[in-house]
Design brief:
- This protein has 300 residues and is α/β, with parallel strands linked by helices.
- Helices cover 46% and strands 23% of the residues.
- It has 13 helices and 11 strands.
- Strand 1 and strand 2 form a beta hairpin.
- The chain is globular, with a radius of gyration of 19 Å.
């Protein structure tokens, strides 16, 4: 009897400013490639609340980070992961002791973590996923809103025109740590680009836009996203509420209930600046791009 060939399994660890995610996918069709999600674990370590107020990661969060990486290492062993990549973004970039913590994690757990800059973060998502989406035509602005930064890619008829990262994120906004110069840089970049690319729509990425999409009531099997007017209506419902009221009324987790309003503000600000009417929401993010990148690297 012929033994079935073991399917390749890949993992991505996304160390964000609000949460740390482990995504494990199995390669179903190497020719496609087509992946099946095997496991997704999200733990709200909220590193940004330390970094954006104190400038460093506290000992308590450092210990939790080590414990979590040990747990993720065991999970990857259980799922027989063939290859993985761990990437740290805005909070670890800004933390005075970020490299020290990463060196300690490598020594303690064997997990190597790459601190990636904002442009690489944006490129991972665009280069490994968005550019393959043949169903999306015209002028599109990909927007990924995280806890510490917002990444943007302007795509015109499948070609990447512009890519940039801004230190504007949900946790930074809650901490009052977003510099006015960053808002001005974002506004200036978008206003410079928009006149040459008419009819821009957004592609939204991140846990917050996914949740806002669900709360809007527009999410269905037929829908690929939501109107900006619907997002504005959802924002106007959420913004006056306290965090506790959002948790109770919308059944939100505490670590989602506080960041969801600043996330909506960022998306609405960008949509208004480029006069976008619609947001496509393909439910992908940095973790998916990391895994696509691992696969592509194996093919070279």
């Amino acid at each position: 009897m012929k033994m079935a060939t073991k399917k390749k399994t890949y993992a991505a660890i996304d160390i964000g400013s609000n949460a740390v995610r482990l995504l494990i996918k199995e390669l179903e069709n190497p020719e496609g490639p087509v992946f099946t999600k095997v496991q997704l674990v999200r733990v709200p370590l909220r590193l940004g609340f330390d970094v954006f107020s104190k400038g460093y990661i506290t000992d308590s969060k450092k210990k939790d980070m080590v414990r979590l990486m040990k747990a993720y290492k065991h999970l990857m062993k259980i799922y027989h992961v063939d290859d993985y990549r761990a990437c740290a973004t805005s909070a670890m970039r800004d933390a005075a002791n970020g490299q020290e913590i990463i060196d300690g994690i490598l020594k303690t757990t064997g997990i190597r973590i790459d601190i990636i800059d904002g442009k690489e973060e944006a490129a991972i998502i665009y280069g490994n996923h968005i550019e393959k989406s043949s169903s999306l035509k015209g002028n599109l602005l990909y927007v990924d809103v995280g806890g510490g930064s917002t990444e943007t890619n302007l795509i015109s008829n499948g070609q990447l025109i512009f890519s940039s990262s801004y230190n504007i994120g949900t946790v930074r906004m809650l901490n009052g740590s977003v510099q006015e110069s960053e808002w001005k840089r974002l506004d200036s970049d978008l206003r410079r680009l928009a006149p040459s690319y008419s009819g821009i729509d957004l592609i939204g990425s991140g846990g917050n836009i996914n949740k806002l999409y669900k709360l809007s009531g527009e999410r269905s099997l037929e829908s690929t996203g939501m109107s900006v007017s619907s997002l504005k209506k959802t924002y106007c419902s959420l913004a006056p509420m306290s965090v506790e009221e959002r948790i109770e009324r919308y059944d939100l987790k505490p670590d989602r209930a506080d960041v969801i309003v600043p996330a909506a503000r960022i998306f609405l600000t960008i949509a208004d600046t480029v006069s976008a009417d619609y947001i496509y929401i393909p439910m992908i993010g940095l973790s998916d791009g990391i895994i696509d990148g691992l696969y592509n690297r194996k093919q070279k």
